[in-house]
Amino acid sequence: MKKILYLDNWDNGYRHFLRLDKSFKNKGFETLLVHTGSWVGETSEIWVDKQIEVEKSIEGMVIRDIGYYRTNRIRKVIETEKPYAIVLINLSFIIDRAIVKICKDLNIKIFYLAHGKLITAEGQAVVKQNMRDYGKSKLQSKFTRKNMYALYNYFVEMKSFSKFFGFFYKAMQDYTQFTAFPKYSEELEATKSFVYYPMDYDVMVNEFGFPKDSVQIVGNPELDAFYNAKIKDKDIYIQDELKIENPNYVAYMDDGLSSMRNWDSSKWMVFLDDLNQILVDKKLQLVIKLHPRRKIDDCLSFFEEKGIKYFYDLDFKNYVYHSVFTLSHFSSVIIYPLLLGKSVKSPRWGLSNGIEENFPPNIINYYYNREDFEKNIFNFEINKNDIEEYLSESLANYDGKSISRIVNEVIKDA
Question: From what superkingdom does this record's organism come (predicted)?
Answer without folding.
Answer: Bacteria
